[in-house]
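Customer escalation, tier 2.

The customer says the design service returned an amino acid string that "doesn't look like it belongs to this structure." They asked us to rerun it and document both sides in this ticket. The original structure tokens are below, unchanged.
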């Protein structure tokens, strides 16, 4: 009989979409109040991969990822998505513009083997967590690099994303080593 073991803690990140740098900065400040200091951010890149958000957010969006240094339990991901949804509402009140949704925040985590995103949308490759929140393994570690799945969003396939999540994985191992000792890098 297999004995269940608790999972290792994971490294939190949030993917941000906004129309300008001011809104990205406001989103980072808001998130810092929820999760503590942001210790790394990716480069900002133009979000030209889809027009899915255009009706709510406008055109010419920017994409950025933010990382937090404190590890957390992976089962807290659903709660984190609900919190970032609330943070979006708070920012919408702050930025009363001609858009319904000035900032999009998608939380996730990095572990040894995967990058996981939280979402409110169900699909065949997503697993239900709790309270209307699903999880998706967006990238997986294979052959010493992050590898996309057929369903991986195009922005997560960029060189910018790859660099950011490689740095996250390296940082994650340093944090795990401080917390519990070395889990092995496999």
């Amino acid at each position: 009989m297999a004995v269940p073991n608790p999972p290792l803690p994971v490294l939190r990140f949030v993917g941000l979409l906004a129309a300008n740098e001011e809104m990205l900065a406001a989103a980072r400040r808001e998130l810092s109040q929820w999760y503590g200091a942001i210790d790394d951010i990716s480069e900002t890149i133009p979000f030209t991969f889809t027009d899915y958000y255009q009706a709510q957010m406008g055109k010419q969006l920017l994409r950025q990822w933010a990382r937090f240094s404190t590890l957390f339990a992976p089962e807290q991901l659903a709660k984190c998505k609900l919190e970032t949804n609330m943070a979006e509402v708070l920012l919408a009140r702050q930025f009363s513009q001609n858009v319904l949704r000035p900032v999009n925040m998608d939380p996730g985590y990095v572990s040894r083997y995967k990058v996981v995103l939280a979402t409110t949308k169900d699909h065949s490759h997503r697993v239900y967590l709790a309270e209307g929140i699903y999880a998706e393994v967006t990238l997986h570690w294979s052959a010493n690099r992050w590898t996309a799945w057929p369903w991986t969003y195009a922005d997560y396939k960029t060189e910018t994303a790859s660099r950011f999540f490689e740095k996250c994985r390296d940082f994650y191992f340093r944090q795990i080593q401080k917390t519990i000792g070395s889990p092995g890098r496999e």
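Tier 2 assessment: The sequence is consistent with the input. Helices lie at 21-35, 54-57, 77-94, 159-180. The longest strand covers residues 61-72. Sent an explanation to the customer and offered a walkthrough call.
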